[in-house]
Every structure is written in C-alpha cells, then in structure tokens.
Design brief:
This protein is mainly alpha-helical. It is built from seven helices and two strands; from the N terminus they run H-E-E-H-H-H-H-H-H. The longest helix has 28 residues.
Length: 174
C-alpha cells in the first residue's frame, strides 16, 4: 500500500510536470519563426500568451518571467533582455488589471490580450528600430500581433487544462 503522502507528492509532481511540458512547448514555439507564404517570417508570441493567461489566473514570480524572457532572447537570437523586458512589462500591466480581468467574460480577456500584444509588439518594433538605427518595417510586427490574437483562444485550451490540473479542487476552478 502506498502511503498517502506519496500519492499527494506524485499528484503534485504530475500536475506541475504537465504545466512545465506545456510551457516548454510554448517556449520552443516562441523561439522559432514560422514561414507563411507572401508574409515571410512571422513569430507569434506564445510566451506572451502564457504570461498574460497565468498572470490573470495563477501569477508567476516576475523573476521567473524575466529568466524565461532572457532564455527566449538567447534561443531566438534577439537583443539580450528584449523579451525579458517585454514579458515582465506585460506581466506588470496585466497584473495591475488582474482583479478587473478575473470577473470578465472570455471576450474581454481576449480583447485585453489583443491590447497587450499590440503594446508588446510596438515596444519590440521601437526597440528594433533604435538598436538598428534605422526604421524597421512594422508589417511583421503587425502580422505577429494579428496572428497571435487569433491563436489566443486555441492556446487557452491547453493552458486552461493545466490550470485545472494545478487546482487543489478541480471543481472549484473558475
């Protein structure tokens, strides 16, 4: 017979393992651009989606978000610190509206993500322009924002499953 504490421990490890697998998958998807015919390389902001979602439902320490952003910068060959800055800023802004967002419908949360994605894309575009000392085309950023906004509802499904798995009582999940 397995002791009760072992069952609880295994359940916790399994739940967090599921969360880490989903987040790792999103991390890898965020690091590499997609080639779309006639649009070139597009990089949907999967990690921004995860940070936004988790900030509303299950906040993560800003240091963890910062470290993920730095790792994403290294893997995606961006300027070191750019994604870290954007993800932490998005987390802070979303966190400041967390109480409001918790009681809202999915459409309001989706619209909030669209605004966060547009803001993050604009900041990233401005930083690219500053670092290159030349005006960088805004089209890839806009395509990324639009694509990310349309993909957000699809991404909420696995994130919601992880959120329910991490809940102490799955029936109490909002």
């Amino acid at each position: 017979m397995t002791p009760v504490w072992n069952e609880s421990f295994l359940r916790i490890v399994g739940r967090w393992g599921l969360a880490l697998i989903v987040l790792f998958f999103l991390f890898v998807l965020s690091a590499f651009p997609f080639r779309i015919a006639h649009l070139g390389e597009v990089r949907p902001v999967f990690m921004l989606m995860a940070v936004y979602y988790w900030t509303i439902l299950r906040p993560v320490p800003p240091l963890a978000v910062f470290m993920v952003g730095l790792a994403l910068d290294l893997l995606s060959d961006y300027t070191f610190g750019m994604n870290a800055l954007i993800l932490v800023a998005a987390q802070w802004l979303t966190g400041s509206q967390r109480k409001f967002l918790l009681g809202q419908s999915f459409l309001v949360i989706w619209a909030g993500f669209a605004l966060i994605a547009l803001g993050a894309g604009t900041v990233q575009w401005l930083l690219f322009t500053l670092f290159n000392l030349a005006l960088v085309p805004a089209k890839p950023m806009l395509i990324s924002v639009v694509l990310s906004t349309f993909l957000f509802p699809l991404l909420v499904l696995p994130l919601s499953a992880v959120h329910k798995a991490l809940a102490d009582d799955p029936s109490s999940v909002a």
